[in-house]
Amino acid sequence: MPVLKVNNLTKTFGGISAVTDVSLDIEAGEIIGIIGPNGAGKTTFFNLLTGLYSPNSGDIIYNLDSKITTHDLKPHKITHYGISRTFQNIRLFQNMSVMDNVLIGFHSELKYGVFCALFRLPSYFKSENEIYKKTDRLLDRLNLLDKKYELAKNLPYGDQRKLEIARALAANPKILLLDEPAAGMNPRETRELMNLIKWIKDEFRLTVILIEHDMSLVMNICERIFVFDYGNLIASGTPEEVQQNKKVVKAYLGEEVE
Amino acid sequence: MKRLSRKQIMIIIGLLAFYAVTNFMINKNIIDSYLQLNMIVIGINIILAVSLNLITGFTGQFSLGHAAFMSIGAYTSAILTANFGQPFILSIVLSGAAAAIAGILIGVPTLRLKGDYLAIATLGFGEIVRILALNIDYIGGAIGFNDIPQYTNWTWTFILTAATIVLIYNFINSYHGRACAAIREDEIAAEIMGVNATYYKVLAFAMGAFFAGIAGALYANYFYFIKPDSFGFMKSIDILVIVVFGGMKSIAGSIVGAIVLTIISSFLQGIPELRMIIYSLILFGIMIYRPTGLIGDDKFIIGKKKRRSI
To answer: Which end of chain B is more exposed for a tag (fewer CB within 10 A), N or C?
Structure first.
């Protein structure tokens, strides 16, 4: 039973087709890599998966606690269903503390009303205390606890990436989408990130889908890889299969001139 | 997080003592009516500034229509107390509610706009309200609304100012307030984290409008007389100046800003020809030497020991 099923998904912007007729299945507990040259439609695909764009045709079906189809995909409901993501160009809440960033991640879990908040009724204290404890625990597990009160924008780059993952994890997702998590990292940081992703996947029992240009990372940790080029899904399979695929080599390196 | 920290209890005791002392001095005529007028104006300005700060500072929606909400509250209260003889408490609540409904009506279509565009739209809204008030004969039109009973006194002003501050402080320190701050920082990321951006923007707008309406009711029932031009574009700018002067994202800043600017402008009334020049120079100075406002870095917020920053 695939956790995510995409059928003939197409998205066009004016005359440009960013994602064309893509179909794929993803099983629960996999680490999936999505690769392809710049402008291949990878991020558009992510935006479709999280409801930021709505597709022109085709559909997306999630099998999580309930069955979610394209129609239900409203951005602010996504985390509620158990889908969480990070962004290619880090989108943290810059002027808020590390703790507040993670607290926002718990947003869909909190239920007390505006009235309770205004008059600080008992349920306010109960839920807030609980969330603060959970936030501390999560920051501790990701080694960010000592930076709790720092503003997000003052963190080193690697920690900002980590914080974005922490924020996504706070929403208690079943599927985690990572958009170029290793962008701008040096090889050492990339290695750490690789271990982090593996650890997160087991620890939080997630399905991870990641977009990445760093081939060492993709080939190392991904169980299956999908290759995009000009909006089309041109190849899929294990890292070895993809490396041998002629179309993939052509997309990246071009063809020999006769 | 305890129900009340020691610091909060100290603040409550301090406020009660402050109120007891000032009320005693008013009764004994140590505080004359001119000083009392200034105290009430400060209270009204604090309510206006803190409520605008919720919209502009915390939620990040740049609004230039705050005086319009105040005028809706002022006229509602004037009609209810002068024409229908309703008790003040009821007219205060209904003034706030009327302004909040106006806030929702204007918020739903305009809050999809961002930055400058929202500012222009709210500016237009302010003008619409002013022109409407000018042309409705029932509320006096351009002549203004006369003979409003004077119910507002120091006690009402003090209680409502304190209530506004406490409620807005509680709001921004809840997950609703965090959601508003997240929208200010990055709307798309907030949506992806499960925040319904439209809902929270309209909510913040309606709450800000509610308190502005209450400030309007206090204003109308203190000065006997209101006219549409008192709530024009310049009034909105005045409130915005207090918020920026005191520091965006800081309730304490809005309070201090309202106090300082009200005192400055009441002193400058003696020299009307230089008033706006000196006022502007002070603002220049603040913007150059403290661009984040007097208290812009959240450090002095009541009961908040650098523990959290929103």
So the answer is: N
- Contact with chain B for residue A124, Cβ under 8 A: yes
Whether A124 maps to a domain, the answer reads no
Distance CA B208, CA B56 (A): 10
Q: Which residues of B71-85 are buried (b: 16+ CB within 10 A; e: fewer)?
A: bbbbbbbbbbbbeee
> Exposed, middle or buried by CB within 10 Å (0-12, 13-18, 19+), for A225?
buried
pLDDT in tens, chain A (258 residues): 788 999 999 999 988 899 999 999 999 999 999 999 888 999 999 999 998 999 999 989 888 877 888 877 888 888 888 899 999 999 999 999 999 999 999 998 888 999 999 999 899 999 999 999 999 999 999 989 999 999 999 999 889 999 999 999 999 999 999 999 998 888 888 998 999 999 999 999 999 999 999 998 999 999 999 999 999 999 999 999 988 888 888 888 877 776
Chain A contact for B305 (CB, 8 A cutoff): no
The answer to whether residue A56 sits within a structural domain is yes
Edge to edge, the sheet with strand A57-63 lists A16-27, A2-13, A57-63, A67-69
Please check whether residue A85 is in contact with residue A174, taking contact to mean a CB–CB distance below 8 angstroms.
Answer: no
Considering the domain boundaries, does residue A159 fall inside one?
no
Give the chain B residue nearest A169 (alpha carbons): B193
> What would the 3-class secondary structure string for B232-274 be?
CHHHHHHHHHHHHHHCCCCHHHHHHHHHHHHHHHHHHHHCHHH
* Inter-chain CB proximity A114 and B177 less than 8 Å: no
Predicted ipTM of the assembly: 0.90
Tell whether A43 is covered by a domain.
yes
- Provide the domain limits for residue A27: 2-96+165-253
Q: How many domains does chain A have?
A: 1
CATH number at residue A179: 3.40.50.300
